[in-house]
Amino acid sequence: MRQPQLRAATSRPLSWRSNCTAAAASASQPSEPLSAHFTNGRPLSRAPAVVRDLSSVLRAILAASPSSHSRAYPLLKSAAFDARLAPDALVDAVLSAVGGPGSRQATALLSRLLASLCRAGRAGAAAAAYASMEARGVTPDAKSRTDLLAVTARSASAADALALLAEMRGKGRPLDAWMFDVVMRACFKEGMYDDAVRLFDEMPASEIEPDQRVCSVAIASLCKLRDANRALLVLRKMQDAGFVPWDFTFNSVVDVLVKGGRMEEALHIKDELLATGKKMSVVLATTLMHGYCLQREVRKALDIFEETLRDGLVPTDVTYTVLIRGCTEEGMPEKAYELCRQMRDHGLLPSTNEFNMVIKGLLNDKLWKDAVSLFKEMADSGIPDAFTYNILIHWLCQRRKIREALNLWEKMNETGVKPYIVTYHSLLLCYCVNGCMDEAVKLYTEMPGKGFTPNVVTYTTLMKGHINKAAFDKAYALLAEMKQNGVSCNDYTYNTLINGLCVVGRVCEVGEMLKRFETEGFVPTAMTYNSIINGFIKAGMMGSAFAVYQQMCAKGIPPNIVTYTSFIDGYCKTSCCDLALKMLNDVRCKGLRPDIAAYNSLIFGFCQEGNMSHALQVLVLMLKDGLLPNISVYNSFITGYKNLKMMEEALRLYEKMIKEGIDLDTATYTTLIDGFSKDGNVTFALKLYSEMVAKGNIPDHITFTALTHGLCRNGDIDDARKLLDEMNRLDIRPNVLMYNMLINGYLRNGKLQEAFRLHDEMLERKIMPDDTTYDILVGMKSLGSDSPIDAENPNLSSTG
Description:
mainly alpha
């Protein structure tokens, strides 16, 4: 027969009473589930009749047998959960059934009810039931109060659980370690580490001995507070009490020691863990690696990493992140690159931040091919972001590797990664520096359609590009367009245009331009006057430059080292190195520190004059000022020694540069190749050429001219002829000097047909023969031993 369901007392009181009667009658029939009487989910009211009826049923059940409260509880639970009877009504019903709060049955039933409400997550109902019990003189047992603390922490907050525990203590209710553990864990999870430690400290006053769980939470909290000494103290007390710390406890202590730079103690704790028979976890190993990285002992961190691999531990992404960051910060980009690839092989991916660190590290170490390779491997993983693309594109553009930069730009567009405006600026700068102004202007016109408004940097970059192509009028036209689009000029823009006018040799017009800019609010600075002074000096107008210098001083703008460096350079290039040296000494007496450019101008000037002793004296001054020679200084000395045919000295400098790790550039190699070729050591010149190409230096037409000259002088005409093929491969256009030397060489060897074939090839390639070409062909006039390449490149000129 179907059991009747409990209905709301206010709507069906007769049904309620009949159900209670049925429940009372069923007290003697254990096969019938009492909870079937309370299956309706509608909440019951707090009507006295409801309480009386439930109380009557419970009284009847409990009267049947003193131990029958186990049959009474399901009915009470059903009333609470199925019928949703109010908590205070439930308490009243129980107390009425057992005759008051002093009954053990009341405490047992209500404690079970409180525990059930807590486990069901009904924090509000549990709190109301607890309050009602306390108000009526019933103290729930320890287990149910622990459950109440737990559900309060989960559903409300650790602060509420703390307040509840304080209330229990204030009323003199008995507490135990479980209760402290529950509240301390809640505090720990919410970052209330001070409160967790405070509770731990209060336990002795409550005559409660901390157990393993409580000690572990206290240690973890102390570690979060960076109180390593106290954490160690609690750990020792915990061990003295016979507790074996958990792995998490060991890890916490090691972590706080590591962060405090106390690696020796951290390693000792690790040894203690191993002594218990446990193995080092990947978490502990990673923590120790992090410690070594913090102490900049990355190699030791890598040793632990290798040890974990040998022990069969599987590194996590955190492990790799710690090592990658450590290697990158310690200047070990190749190892970071290896770890990044190893991470990928293990099915893990670095974060975008760490990936970008690896890319930057490789680029800083000039391992750009590895950077691009790693990027390609990760391009479709979603790891590279706009910043990644920008790092690579900017670096490649700075090194004029425009093809590689454009490949990345296309990939960026394909993958839908939106660029920054600085990405556009990097590409614009690359185009401008490489003289590709049509492409630069095209990219500029695309920007508005892509959602980027050109700004002052955009326009100024384009202006500099046009100026570099000697198209100053196009640069100046951008000024009007810039203003029309509402973009204001800054000082850098004005200075760029003033400098541009000087660069294209129109320095005499700069006065009018400066006045016009001043009416627009531009205030000339030292940079402005330095550009004008430098323009006059390069035009050979030292008097005009000095007049601008006086004007600059009259306006209260103090000359700086750039000003004096321009004058020093001007004096050196007009063969007045003594005056330049005097100015350098005057500058030093004024308390200004000459820069490397000033010293190099003097060194270059003395070297060009063949006065190597004075050049060396200037080098000594430079070293005293704490400046180290750069590639330009070395190139000046090598050129000077080459011009004096002192190739042994040039070779000594070359070897010193290699030893000190200074990267030789194309100019260095070309000068050495020319010098050794003229010295008859063509074999070493060819070795230098091979080394140059292997190191990534791109030879130019001057390099090939020097090699051609050396091979022709040595009678190796066929090998010299092969250089033309090498130039074709590198897309370098030969010059008329090379053809003249080759034609002359073939004629001297009696190979007239080869000589005239080269002449025809010149015409096919639109390289116009000059008078020397026809003198050789018609008059059979041989070139002298010193080739005309010196006239093309003053740096390769010979004084002998």
